[in-house]
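User: Can you help me understand a structure? I only have the sequence.
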Amino acid sequence: MSAMATGGIVFACVFGGAVLGLLLRRVLPDHHRSSDSKDVVKLGMGLLATMAALVLSLLIASAKGSYDTQRSELTQLAANFALLDRALAHYGPDANDARNLLRQTVALVLDQTWPRNGRPATRPSPDAIGACSLYEKIQALWAPSETQRALRAEALKIAADLARTRSLLFVQAGSSIPLPFLIILVFWIAVIFVSFGLFAPSNVTVVATLFVCALSVSGAIFLILELDQPFQGFIQIPSDPLRSALPNLGQ
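Assistant: Let's start by predicting it. Here is the structure, written out as tokens:
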């Protein structure tokens, strides 16, 4: 489910809780809305608000950590692509086929992950075109001199690092936010909004305030989920490192 759809569901649950509280206020007997009752409800909601804040901070830390990790891995991937191309360039003309395949691999990753023609983004699998054959091409290079053997060994090491990083990016495609955490958090917030409506007067100002608050809470959840999906949506990891490296590959 997309972050936008999840944010909409969160808004419906939270604002629905506020509306439910306003409706309950009309049917509850007066003694249920006494000052003593309000004090107990406030204490309970204070406890819920504290727990919700803790869980929310955990979700933020998890999503931000996942985003930063994958952004760092992408930067490292771009650097390794450039280093591998330079190593093959120093090897000599015999490595031109490997350099061309390297350029095609980078172009494929860019086209699949950050498409420019409106197509949905897809996460390239580690065994996509060039992932395995590039290593085999480098391994098959004939290296008569000591310098070329050293360059081939270095190129093979970088190619292995590339494959490892691409595999990491692929397996990290799933969400880092546990679904039970999110469900429980939304439930707690909805209960808190029920208490808001339960003791609030039914007027336009109160309803508008609850609406804006519910929209803000759902917006926060939406941003967290966007951070947790860094290769799609509105908050994407920029493709600048790979796009900057591409023109220099094979040159």
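Now, to help you interpret it: Helices lie at 3-27, 35-91, 96-113, 133-139, 146-171, 179-198, 204-227, 240-245. Residues 35-91 form the longest helix (57 residues). Let me know which part you'd like to focus on.
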